[in-house]
């Protein structure tokens, strides 16, 4: 396969153009719907698609928050108390998730804006989203400031200390993607459903570490 590719040096193009290349190419992205709480007890809920699972032992996830002045509520709250919950976004709550991405004043609860229900967590203070079938209670491990520039971001790494999941979508801890019905984010305003699914068996070459 031969492509006549264009070579783009990030330093030679507007930040917004390179951003479009990034978010249009790294697709589909999972969406962390992150609940946090401020030191005065105000609840916050916002979606982040620069998100992934990064470690199994201990289970850990990360997501990235773009710089803004003042800082986005999510990272401000996590800096205050080091706790958050990642809720998985499904087709059923896609519109509520989108509502929660509005730039509301600090102190406005996106639970109230969206009508989603806060359920008490077991270990951390921020609540779980009842309408999300999988919730991961997390404790902050590290914040990595990737860049302090205006369009820079900080990566939040969290240890997953509890996972709540709907048993009707799982068989012996294996989540059925057709029952979960997670959505993914594409570039621009695009989203995908996780229903165009196929499987591939990995090659069975003996590996030194047995993995
Ligand atoms: C699907 C989706 C994904 C998003 N991903 C990110 C992201 O990865 N990083 C980010 O900083 N903002 C992201 N946003 C924007 C934030 O959700 C938005 O700035 C929100 O207002 C932040 O809320 P907060 O100030 O309550 O933390 C995303 C928005 C949507 C709808």
Structural notes for this entry:
The structure is a single chain. This protein is globular. The protein is of the alpha+beta class. The two termini are 31 Å apart. The chain has one domain: Electron Transport, Fmn-binding Protein, Chain A (Pnp Oxidase, Chain A), CATH 2.30.110. The protein is built from 5 helices and 13 strands. It has helices at residues 15-25, 73-81, 94-99, 110-114, 177-180, and strands at 32-37, 43-48, 51-56, 59-66, 83-88, 118-119, 128-129, 134-145, 153-165, 170-171, 174-175, 183-185, 191-193. Flavin mononucleotide binds at residues 31, 44, 46-50, 64-66, 72-74, 98, 101, 103, 185. Flavin mononucleotide is lined by residues 31, 44, 46-50, 64-66, 72-74, 98, 101, 103, 185.
The strands making up the biggest β-sheet line up spatially as 2-1-5-8-9-4-3
Mean pLDDT across every amino acid position: 96
Alpha-carbon distance between the two ends: 31 Å
| N-to-C SSE string, H for helix and E for strand | HEEEEHEHHEEEEEEHEE
Measured by DSSP, the beta-strand proportion falls in: 25-35%
Number of domains: 1
CATH architect. name: Roll
Q: Tell me about the biggest sheet?
A: 7 strands, antiparallel
Instruction: Round the Cα radius of gyration to an integer and report it.
Output: 18 Å
Residue runs with pLDDT of under 50 for 5 or more positions: none
Helix count from the secondary structure assignment? 5
Which class do the helix and strand fractions yield?
Answer: alpha+beta
The CATH topology turns out to be Pnp Oxidase, Chain A
Superfamily at the CATH H level? Answer: Electron Transport, Fmn-binding Protein, Chain A
The first-level CATH class name: Mainly Beta
The helix content, as a percent range, equals 10-25%
